[in-house]
Amino acid sequence: MHFRISHTAPFPLVLLLLTFLLPACSGSPPASLGPVAGGLAPCPETPNCVHTGFRESADIPEFTLAPRWTDGATHDLFQRVSQAVTSLPRTEVVDRTDRYLRAEATSRIFRFVDDLEVYLPDEGDRIVVRSSSRLGRSDLGVNLRRVEELHEILRQDGVVTNPPTP
User: Which of 68, 96, 110, 130 counts the most CB atoms within 10 A of its CB?
Assistant: First the structure.
């Protein structure tokens, strides 16, 4: 008796499993999202979150507004911020007001979802930005790179003035 082993048989099974398991990587948005007490919720203890309002690291850029944006024209400002956020790869704005924006950024392969928030406090000359992974502990620096890329887009657009932190 001679048995034949098919090397392609597991592929449909793997594809079927991935179809059902990968959407689970997105998780649900945390209840802590949104403006709180004039800012954004602090990052959790895990290293997969970046927050410009809580200077956890010298690597996090500050989003100091250019003088032309400190006069209170929040609608135009947040229109530009929204355009900058949607120019980030695989990022979609899901909630927006005149002073707050939340977007979801989805990873290319495993479809992990990160939450990106931008908030303009009533007073001050800075935008507060928070980017956090929904699942896991490590993000391999993805959230920091996202915040740095957003900073660079806004700097080139004249929305923020300060150079990136070295």
Answer: 130
Domain membership flag for residue 149: yes
Instruction: Provide the domain limits for residue 82.
Output: 47-156
User: Which regions of 46-123 does DSSP assign to beta strands (E)?
Assistant: 49-51, 63-64, 91-96, 100-106, 113-119
Interval 84-113: pLDDT, tens: 999 999 999 999 998 999 999 998 888 899
Tell me if the pTM is above 0.85: no
The first and second tokens of residue 23, run together, are 């959407």
92 lies in a domain?
yes
Q: Give the phi and the psi of residue 71 in degrees, each rounded to 5.
A: -90, 0
Q: How far is CA 16 from the centre of its chain?
A: 29
For residue 83, give the CATH number of its domain: 3.30.310.80
Q: Which residues contact 129 (CB under 8 A, 6 or more apart)?
A: 50, 51, 52, 63, 116, 117, 118, 119, 147, 150, 151
5-12: long-range contacts, CB 8 A cutoff, minimum separation 24: none
- Number of structural domains the chain divides into: 1
